Amino acid sequence: MTAQANTRNAIPTVKLLIGGELVESTTREWRDVVNPATQEVLARVPFATVEEMNAAVASAKEAFKTWRKTPIGTRARIFLKYQQLIRENMKELAAILTAEQGKTLADAEGDVFRGLEVVEHAAGIGNLQLGELANNVAGGVDTYTLLQPLGVCAGITPFNFPAMIPLWMFPMAIATGNTFVLKPSEQDPMVTMRLAELALEAGIPAGVLNVVHGGAEAVNLICDHPDIKAVSFVGSTRVGTHVYNRASQAGKRVQCMMGAKNHAIILPDANKEQTLNNLAGAAFGAAGQRCMALSVAILVGEAQSWLPELAEKARSLKVNAGVEPGTDVGPLVSCSAFERVSGLIERGVGEGAELVLDGRNPEVPGYAKGNFVGPTIFSGVTPEMTIYKEEIFGPVLCVMAADSLDEAIELINANPNGNGTAIFTRSGAAARHFQEEIDVGQVGINVPIPVPVPMFSFTGSRGSKLGDLGPYGKQVVQFYTQTKTVTERWFDENEVGGPVNTTINLK
Question: Which residues form the Aldehyde dehydrogenase domain (predicted)?
Answer without folding.
Answer: 24-486
